[in-house]
Each structure stands twice: as C-alpha cells, then as structure tokens.
User: What shape does this take?
Amino acid sequence: AQSVSQHNHHVILSEAASLELGCNYSYGGTVNLFWYVQYPGQHLQLLLKYFSGDPLVKGIKGFEAEFIKSKFSFNLRKPSVQWSDTAEYFCAVEGGGYQKVTFGTGTKLQVIP
Amino acid sequence: DTAVSQTPKYLVTQMGNDKSIKCEQNLGHDTMYWYKQDSKKFLKIMFSYNNKELIINETVPNRFSPKSPDKAHLNLHINSLELGDSAVYFCASSHGDGAQAQHFGDGTRLSIL
Assistant: This one.
C-alpha cells in the first residue's frame, strides 16, 4: 500500500522568505506525484504534477517541486512567498492501483505580511 | 461554468437522518471520486467510479452508498447519520488514464447536531 508523509504540519513565514515543504512517499513501483493547494474556505486546486521526464517541475504561482527517486521525495519550493500563499498544501501520490490517489495530511502555511 | 459542482454547499441535520449530496461534472471526465476531509484537514478517499462502475471502495461504513447514474454524476447517500460523519465532503473528477490531476468541487460541509 502506498503512503505519503508531510512532516511539516504548520509553517509560519514572513513575506519574501523562501519556502520548502517536505513530502515523502512509500511505494515500490512507478508513481505519479502531485501538489495541491487549498485556500481558506475553498476546494483543492492543482499546483503542479510529475509523472515522467524532468524531475524538476514548475507549477503555477512560482511554485516548483523536485522528484528525487532515491529519496522517495517530492518537496515543494518557492523562492519568495507572499501573503496570498497562505493556505493548506497537500502532497499526493498515485500508484499501486487504478487512479488511487493517496493524500498527505497537509501542511498549513501561514505567511505574515 | 463550474467544472465540478456539488449540492448542497452546507448541510445541517440531526443524527439518524438520511441525506444525499449530489455531484456533477461537465469536464467530460470518466472517473469521479468522493473524499472526506475531517476537522484536521485530513483528506481520505471514500469511493471512485469509472464510467459508472465502482473501482475504489475504501473502508467506509455501509451507511454510505454512492450512486452513479451516468459518468457525469456521482451522488452520495448517507443513511442514519452519526456525529462522526460531520466533515467536509469533496467530489472530484479526472480522466481515467492515469497521471491526470483531479478537479475538485467546492465541498459540502456536513454538520450533524
């Protein structure tokens, strides 16, 4: 069975600080990886995804993530956060079954102006 | 046009009642999902349908019964509601050929009195 770990539960940053959110997964086969964002009171939206090719993927709003297969990691980064990035961020893994996507427990990011 | 729409947005009811949540997508996707997000924001898949056929059925009480009249609709019926059913329920859809991001509805906040 696949699983996803997000070790940072709550991150507080000042505007313009750099961001890195950790995501590790466990699954022995080929995986597809996603980061979703949930702004307060809204639904989840896709930030970026990886399924093959360049392990460094760029998403919307200046976010990027790097897939490191040897570390089973898919960390999310942004060089300079803004107050509007305040949200909950979910890492997700698809593998091991037909469209079965497992979500991490989420990281709450709070950006202070 | 809303891509994935759920109704109602809020549902407040008493224990023991039976209620339904409807979901419709106009994206032409062939796979639809129901997720439950608890108060700690943990997102857990409940069901997935592909072309009206059940393909994922996680450990969910049999009081929860999904129904897919066609591939654009996936409704969730809940019998004998319990306090622990209070949560936000998200519907999502995707193409069923893997590596495709899921599109989420706005969620239905279910509160049991």
